[in-house]
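Worked problem 6 (solution included).
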Amino acid sequence: MPSLNRLVAWQDTGIEVMKSEIAWLPQLLQTTDSIFPSGSYAHSFGLEGLVQLGQVAEPVDFAEFLRHQVVPAMEHMELPFVRLAHRAAGDADVSRLLELDEHYGAMKSSFELRQASSRIGTQRLQMLQKLTPHPLLAQLETECGRGNFHAHATIVFGAQAAIAQMPLEASLAAYFYQNLAALVSAAMKLIRMGQIAGQTILTECLAQTGVVVELALTVNEADIGWFQPGLDIASARHETAYTRIFIS
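Solution. The predicted structure is:
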């Protein structure tokens, strides 16, 4: 174990400054890890509905689903909302966060997907306020209790990132990874796909992270949105499915 003098020497060389520059990283890692109890593990985000309809039956189908539906939606809708929430929280603008939350919810046409986003975001908000209390989080919890804030996952994550002073690009990349990883985890329970195949597909998608984040940074608010009728229909049918593994 290094001596106290050695630790002081490290501080003298500027390592203490380096530590402060990544002070945001531990929370980002903790809250995007699968063990963080946001409740996302209980959701397939419409994937189970697609499996039930026979639209996703093999790993190749799942890869196509991510490539043509999930990644574009992340570019044009999910990540731009995280970006806008990050900015609003940085300005401590609660009214703007409420507006973004309402806007995002209105763009989720399936009840299950809308509910899943709200449940995950609400649980994240509650956990964050317990672990790292902050006045802005407290205000959002109050508005949630009043029915003025549905705590959609993108909005809560963006607010969290701003409060913890996480760089915007890193926050977007982490949200991108978290959502892809959750879908891969769900897919391995729904179709015949092993861990190697799952990680291979995840790696292929994550290779696009830089491009996806760059595009998400340029989407104008008026242009936010992504049309996914197949996923919406599958999710709507899933609400009344006779058997199901996931809530959504």
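Discussion: The first helix runs from residue 4 to 12.
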